[in-house]
Amino acid sequence: MQSAISRRKRRKLKSEINVVPYIDVMLVLLIIFMVTAPMLTLAVNVDIPKSTARSVDSKADPVIVTVDGDGRFFLKLKDAPIQELSAEELQARLAAFVSENKDIPVFLAAPGDANYQKVIDATGIISKAGVTKVGLMSKPGGTGGNAR
């Protein structure tokens, strides 16, 4: 009897973590993200110009106003899908959103060969909506300082 008790006490405890369940959960999550990621990309294809300026770091999701080559306006708010709007609707929605969120960054995107007047019209609409600072979107790696 005494020898059976001493054998139990001599058995060492395992100090290892069983990672098999964690690996199973990780693989399931990986598959879920791989399947859902392509469905989450909703965007307006705009060939924006390139620039050598540094990128802006922002903690909040920005509001993006897009002008396409045909002069149509699109609005992308935080969690909402991209919507095509008229100039009046764009101004009203942007004003309502910015009045609630004063510090939210607002960016304007337009193709490099877009009609300059439409881009200026968009900045006017954004200004009338009460936005004081507007960032212009561009792709990194352009030849910004080489223009003559």
UniProtKB/TrEMBL annotation:
<dbReference type="GO" id="GO:0022857">
    <property type="term" value="F:transmembrane transporter activity"/>
</dbReference>
<dbReference type="GO" id="GO:0005886">
    <property type="term" value="C:plasma membrane"/>
</dbReference>
<keyword id="KW-0132">Cell division</keyword>
<dbReference type="GO" id="GO:0051301">
    <property type="term" value="P:cell division"/>
</dbReference>
<feature type="transmembrane region" description="Helical">
    <location>
        <begin position="21"/>
        <end position="44"/>
    </location>
</feature>
<keyword id="KW-1003">Cell membrane</keyword>
<keyword id="KW-0131">Cell cycle</keyword>
<comment type="similarity">
    <text>Belongs to the ExbD/TolR family.</text>
</comment>
<dbReference type="Pfam" id="PF02472">
    <property type="entry name" value="ExbD"/>
</dbReference>
<keyword id="KW-0812">Transmembrane</keyword>
<keyword id="KW-1133">Transmembrane helix</keyword>
<dbReference type="InterPro" id="IPR014168">
    <property type="entry name" value="Tol-Pal_TolR"/>
</dbReference>
<dbReference type="InterPro" id="IPR003400">
    <property type="entry name" value="ExbD"/>
</dbReference>
<comment type="subunit">
    <text>The Tol-Pal system is composed of five core proteins: the inner membrane proteins TolA, TolQ and TolR, the periplasmic protein TolB and the outer membrane protein Pal. They form a network linking the inner and outer membranes and the peptidoglycan layer.</text>
</comment>
<keyword id="KW-0472">Membrane</keyword>
<protein>
    <recommendedName>
        <fullName>Tol-Pal system protein TolR</fullName>
    </recommendedName>
</protein>
<dbReference type="GO" id="GO:0015031">
    <property type="term" value="P:protein transport"/>
</dbReference>
<keyword id="KW-0997">Cell inner membrane</keyword>
<comment type="function">
    <text>Part of the Tol-Pal system, which plays a role in outer membrane invagination during cell division and is important for maintaining outer membrane integrity.</text>
</comment>
